Amino acid sequence: MLNFTVGPVMSNEEVLAIGGEQVPYFRTQEFSNIMLENEALMKEFLNASQEAKAVFITGSGTASMEAVVMNVFTSDDKLLVIDGGSFGHRFTQICDIHKILYTAIKLQQGHTVTAEMLQEYEGKGYTGLLVNIHETSTGVHYDSQMLGDFCKRNNMLFVIDAISSFLADMLDMQAVNADVIITGSQKVLACAPGISIIVLGEKALKRVHENETITMYLDLKDALKNAERGQTPFTPAVGILRQINARLRQIKRDGGAASEIAKIKAQAEDFRSKIKDLPFEIVSESMSNALTPLHPTTASAYDIFLELKDNYGIWICPNGGDMKETIFRVGHFGAQTTEDNDTLITAFKDLQAKGII
Ligand SMILES: *Cc1c(COP(=O)(O)O)cnc(C)c1O
């Protein structure tokens, strides 16, 4: 299987080997040391402040999105949510469920949010902004510095879901004034799905400690208290946390976040340079290095996904909803190489020769 989806993606040998090992008991100093190292490396790779804390939630990315909304905000808040696709829309659904007031900035498919669009929200008493910095459903990558400056000017908490962008695009938590950054195990970390990570800066931590506890499993006060000694309140996905440790250490060994980002950027640029003669249009105003969203001009996007999966053993990423027939996505992260790009391009050309695209 050659997997170009947006997660779960292909893991490297070291991570795969851990998946095949027995899962150890975790209330030990050995496991605490792994968790403390995971926290330190997450903070390092995001350039988080010294006071920032990282917690590891057993649950996919959405669990951490919901945990952040539940623990950082209350019904006294008034949020702005960038709704540029299905992940942005998810934040509005979470706010609805938890009765947090918000205004959604709805974007046209494939379009970014601009400073001009934000002007009407200046000085209007908003207390926080929620954004999926790379809206994975459409492949649009927003400007974190511009959004961070807006939040700083308006004294708003800045929450970034960087689940598919962490380690694919530059993200400096302090430089962009982010208060919360969320990511997950199955995207660029390229481990098994099941763990999501929340990094909280000082202002967000203060909120968590002041707010009333309204959830047991996703209570960040409890998670933070346990994290001080490298532990979690409940049994975590121990095996995945060990995989994450191996990945974070590898990345550190290979030069840190910047070199991982450069690797994914090169993988994306290689793919984009090779599709020029194919009947595909890129459908995003500003792309992440993580993936390329493509509109096939001569065939159904979903049919191409099925053809590649069933006849070539290659998985690209289909889209859902009203983009199902018009857009597919090609991810550039996980244990893939430029030779893998060549294999995919050859398959596309074969589909072309057969008259399928
Ligand atoms: C993958 C992803 C998520 C999380 O989805 P889960 O299925 O809950 O892991 C959230 N936001 C973005 C931007 C994503 O790419």
TrEMBL record:
Binding site for substrate: R329
Keywords from the UniProt entry: Aminotransferase, Pyridoxal phosphate, Transferase
Pfam family, one: Aminotran_5
Residues carrying N6-(pyridoxal phosphate)lysine: K187
Highest taxon above the source species: Bacteria
Cofactor(s) of this protein: pyridoxal 5'-phosphate
A GO molecular function held by the record: transaminase activity
InterPro entries: Aminotrans_V_dom, PyrdxlP-dep_Trfase, PyrdxlP-dep_Trfase_major, PyrdxlP-dep_Trfase_small, SP_NH2Trfase/AEP_transaminase
Record domain Aminotransferase class V: where: 28-222
PANTHER family tied to this protein: 2-AMINOETHYLPHOSPHONATE--PYRUVATE TRANSAMINASE
Name of the protein in question: Alanine--glyoxylate aminotransferase family protein
Naturally occurring in which organism (per UniProt): Duncaniella freteri
Lineage: Bacteria, Pseudomonadati, Bacteroidota, Bacteroidia, Bacteroidales
